[in-house]
Amino acid sequence: MSFSHSSSTPEPQVMGILNLTPDSFSDGGCFVRPEAALAQAQRMVEEGATYIDIGGESTRPGAAAVSVEEELQRVIPVLQAVRESLPSVKISVDTSKPEVMRAAITAGASMINDVKALREPGALQAVADSSVDICLMHMQGEPRTMQQHPVYQDVVAEVKTFLAERIQACEQAGIHKQRLYLDPGFGFGKTLSHNLLLMKHLKALHILDCPLLIGVSRKSMIGAVLDKPVDQRLYGGLALAVLAVQQGAAIIRTHDVAPTYDVLKMMQAVEQVAV
Ligand code: 7PJ
């Protein structure tokens, strides 16, 4: 974003979601054709996104697994096209597979966004051999079953402990902490009250000393509170984006770039007014 004149904390960034999965819950895989995906990426950049998050595997509860070959075929051509026509945007790739991480890094990704926080065998090594940024996300269980019966004694403390352990695993693998972003993983093995508690106490994660990336866009926690279907969750998502940025979140991952950008820009204007 380019609306700041002087600021001690970096401006919050908008990350636009580019789903290349035919079974995505919120946009139904509208962007699977590479030309359509590129057009959507271009629009999101015009609307203020400084990151595009490309995903070729759905992680929604119950989604089918995707082979390495299939995921590479979905992600890499689009990544290359975005890289070529939008050279200044940062490209993040939402994957847990080391093979996809390596190919994405070679093709010019600047961030690996892993909902499994580099726990797949070979994943730590795949990114350690590069200099890309990494988003470590918390998830309890695995996508297929994670929403069946999530249980925590203290969700905020447990998410914090998990992320601290993953930071340590990264550092042991030679990945400098300065490359890491953290994400509590809204909706990933969490009930509504777990999600609300994590948002209420998001600040508690700052003790880990890494910037936070937040993904709440169109998620079921909004649907549950507002009793609204997936295409009517924008305002609820914007409220959560405000709460996250007020608590210091660095990147908001969203399907709805233009409204999110406006909200963050308005917040920033108030934040930065002199005297
Ligand atoms: C997230 C994600 C999230 C990060 C997805 C969806 C489901 N990556 N990938 N954080 N969610 N870092 O977009 O609703 O919350 S896929």
Tell me briefly what this model is.
By secondary structure, this protein is α/β, with parallel strands linked by helices. The protein is built from nine helices and eight strands. β4, α4 and β5 form a beta-alpha-beta unit.
Distance N terminus to C terminus? 23 Å
**What is the CATH class name?**
Alpha Beta
Order of helix and strand elements from N to C terminus? EHEHEHEHEHEHEHHEH
Q: How many strands, what sense, and barrel or not for the largest sheet?
A: 8 strands, parallel
CATH T-level fold name:
TIM Barrel
Strand content: 5-15%
Number of helices: 9
Architecture blueprint of SSEs:
Layout: E1 13-19, H1 34-46, E2 51-55, H2 68-85, E3 90-94, H3 98-106, E4 111-114, H4 123-128, E5 133-137, H5 155-172, E6 180-183, H6 192-200, E7 213-215, H7 220-226, H8 234-246, E8 251-254, H9 257-272
Parallel strand pairs: 1-2, 1-8, 2-3, 3-4, 4-5, 5-6, 7-8
Helix pairs in contact: 1-2, 2-3, 8-9
Bound molecules: ligand 7PJ.
Ligand 7PJ binds at residues 17, 59-60, 94, 113, 115, 135, 137, 183, 185-186, 213, 215, 219, 253.
Tell me what the structure shows:
The protein is an alpha/beta fold and 275 residues long. It has one domain: TIM Barrel (Alpha-Beta Barrel), CATH 3.20.20.20. The chain is built from 9 helices and 8 strands. It has helices spanning 34-46, 68-85, 98-106, 123-128, 155-172, 192-200, 220-226, 234-246, 257-272; strands spanning 13-19, 51-55, 90-94, 111-114, 133-137, 180-183, 213-215, 251-254. Strands 6-5-4-3-2-1-8-7 form an 8-stranded parallel sheet. Strand 4 (111-114), helix 4 and strand 5 form a beta-alpha-beta unit. Helix 2 (68-85) packs parallel to helix 3 (98-106). The longest helix is centred in the first third of the chain and has 18 residues, at 68-85. Mean pLDDT is 93; it is low at 1-7. The structure holds ligand 7PJ. Ligand 7PJ binds next to strand 5 and strand 7.
